[in-house]
Write a structure and sequence with these properties.
By secondary structure, the protein is mostly helical. It has two helices and no strands. Helix 1 (about 10-25) packs antiparallel against helix 2 (about 30-65). The chain starts with 7 loop residues before the first helix and ends with a helix.
Length: about 70
Amino acid sequence: MDINTMTYEKAVKRLEQIVSQVENNELNIDQLGTSLKEAQELLAFCKERLYKADAEINKMLDEFQKEA
């Protein structure tokens, strides 16, 4: 997983894969630890992207309201 080239959509897709593997008991104990660590990193990445998008949208809305 390369965070520098990761998009939000790719991160969500990978998270869905990990959840599916966990739910279907497709991971052995060694893989489980690695996958859960990856999921934690992906969640942090997605959370950061969502906060940035929210801030940008709120800024645009504030500017729009000031112009109106």
